[in-house]
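Pasting as-is:
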Amino acid sequence: MAGVTAAGPAPATVAIVAVGSELLALGRTDTNSPHIAAAMQRHGLAVRFTTVVGDDLGDLTDAMRHALARADLVVCTGGLGPTDDDRTRDVAAAVLGVAMYEDAGVLAGIRDRFGRRGLTMPEINRRQAMVPAGATVVANERGTAPGLWIPADGRAMLLLPGPPREMVPMFEHALAAHVVPRWGGGLIRQRALVVAGRSESWVDERAQPVYGPWRDDALAVSTTILASLGTVELHLSCHGTDDGVLTRRLDAAVAALDAVLGDDVVNHDGRSLERTVGDLLASRGWRVALAESCTGGLATTRLTDVPGASAWVDRAVVSYSNAAKIDALGVPDALIASHGAVSEPVAAAMAEGVRTRAGVDVALAITGIAGPGGGTAEKPVGLVCFAVTGPRGTECRTSRFTGDRAVIRSLAATTALDLLRRYVRASGLP
């Protein structure tokens, strides 16, 4: 990737601090941080980290100091209410070393809000009118807690209330009024390579020699690896000012990784494995039928979770017992007797049986031992056999998975879908 244009200044960095003990002890989900992070990304700012912290004074102080030391902009959500445990304003002022004062305009606005509802403002709400010196108030049209934009020695803090219905419009206003004019203008472009059928260590062993040197290039590409059951994601990110340059840079990066990862790459845009399979089937004009035993319909569920799946999924048979394999799929009982229900010959017969009955282009079958019982020395728990059949004949595979029952079933469903992906892709798809 020689000859690329230099990236220019590094992107401004952002730290997000989600405040509230309810996010730790009561099981509430922090939905604000992902919203903020996505918006920052769109405007060319780089989110360094997100911290969830309770209302403890010491913990909140430590979290803010740490965030301010590592990022250009610290966005805090929550802790701006009127009660004693709402400490975000006070801690921010202390961390920045500025005094607080009561803003008469803010106080009048809070009184007016109560008055419009025929209520008298409780004195406790005066706390929400306290503003750190040098701060600009971010109006809250949906609640009593104003937001605060506080510049600080080339950096800044943005304090916003926690309820999303209040936070989101206030954040969008502050983004346009304060953040983008100061730090926006750059671009961050990303790609996400999804890899199936390989472990995280296998992927990184091959990919790291390729992506490692990119960090030091004039137009750097950063890489993050995320692993889940059966798949690995390689997220590529590049910052600059010219969209065309960034696109070409990432195209070259993707091509370099493709060269070492080969057919294990599912896609380059972060789509799920099941959505990729569906897109491949739709491009080919094929319909699929499934025969599942140990997975109990998990692979089918994943396929039919994709919107529009009715265009390419025909049917599925959960043939859990041997009798169901014989009656519903036409698997010869002699085949089960001679090879066992968990075997490649039986998996092939299951796939061929459901394909014949459905009259579809391609069929997939899974049979295995999910545990915790049922295993033997010859066929241990975690042994799963797969088959896919279609115009190119029948292909089988056997895998041995470790983990509990849920893990084995999940890995088996992922492996089956990946086998189907490889079969369809190798069948002359555009």
